[in-house]
Design goal:
This protein is α+β, with helices and mostly antiparallel strands and about 160 residues long. Helices cover about 25% and strands about 10% of the residues. Strands 1-2-3-4 form a 4-stranded antiparallel sheet, with no helix packed on it. The termini are far apart.
Length: about 160
């Protein structure tokens, strides 16, 4: 019974010790030397083709595969030329979005011009579920109007007047 009590902790210690020893520094390239480029043959090794197979030429630069998180997504559509269907969809869900703070009389929003700084309240995640998403644009509420603004420039792309009433 006594040897068994000693063997189990000793086995655990050896298995953990081997993992730590492999993770210890000293298994990489020597200090002052750079690691070989990926795919480079190790010194002293040579590639021998299999019988019946032609040797493959050395591949040149290959483009990196697309990121895994983007391979299954479809790009968001650009904003439409006719916003009438969008207007109907947003108007039907206006009670989920709510009216934003009203603009003072001296502030005017013009399509093709930048949105005045500090005006137009962003939609939160719950409200964004009820409006279409266009890559590079965001929706802002200004009173009962909804404004589509380009993220990069702040230029107003579309104004949906009175859509939230």
């Amino acid at each position: 019974m006594q040897p068994f009590r000693l063997a189990v902790p000793l086995g655990l210690l050896l298995s953990l010790g081997s993992v730590l020893a492999q993770a210890a520094p000293g298994y990489g390239p020597e200090p002052g030397r750079h690691a070989p480029p990926p795919g480079a043959a190790m010194p002293g090794w040579q590639h021998v083709p299999l019988p019946g197979h032609a040797p493959h030429p050395t591949p040149r630069h290959q483009p990196a595969p697309p990121p895994a998180h983007r391979t299954h997504r479809h790009p968001a559509p650009p904003p439409p030329a006719n916003f009438q269907p969008v207007r109907l969809q947003i108007h039907a869900n206006r009670h989920h979005i709510g009216i934003g703070p009203a603009l003072p009389p001296h502030v005017h929003i013009v399509r093709g011009k930048p949105l005045p700084p500090g005006w137009g309240k962003r939609l939160n995640a719950h409200q964004r579920r009820y409006v279409p998403h266009y890559h590079g644009y965001e929706w802002r509420r200004t009173g009962s109007d909804l404004v589509l603004v380009a993220l990069a420039t702040g230029i107003v792309h579309e104004i949906l007047h009175e859509v939230l009433r």
